[in-house]
Amino acid sequence: MSRSPNASINFDNIGRGRVYGAELFLEHKFNNTFRGWVTYTLSRAERRDSGETDYRLFDFDQTHIFNAVQSYLFPENWEVGIRWRFVTGNPQTPFISGVFNSDLDEYTPTPGATNSDRLPLFHQLDLRVDKTWVWDWWRLSAYLSLINTYNRQNTEGLSYNFDFSRREPIQGLPVLPILGVKGEF
User: Fold this and answer.
1) Domain residues of the chain, as ranges?
2) Which of 141, 147, 153, 160 has its CA 20 to 30 A from that of 15?
3) At 11, phi and psi to the nearest 5?
4) Is the pTM of this model over 0.90?
């Protein structure tokens, strides 16, 4: 089956991408039971779409990523950990207005420059408690994690009204408890 030379292409793999940056990882073991580390990433992710000459920000570019983790091992194989993360919001292409299409009886969005806006900064605090039981030939661990402990209302996306004149944030998950069990042989 041949395609018309004027047919539009929705997806292709002809574009090019590039990423550059630096990462820093520092870990310190204060003693046999207490340790911590911090990580920082500074990066830039860009894409040149098929048929274009200029690069633009990639959809998942995150300029700054920072993590701080600490854990403490208590007697009888109990461990408590904490993690705080901070991340630059993802780029977004804003809709600057809407034009009414009477044939469809709806508004069609008018996009701004590709990825010219960003979602707000993301940060959250996670806590975790682990208990491990050790036998001769296997181990059993149970854990409870509290994701987004301080219930930060992080913006995960944007929702526009019917004529694209107003937008509202789409919030991520609230506090999320996770209970898990892991066996190792």
Assistant:
1) 16-184
2) 160
3) -135, 140
4) no
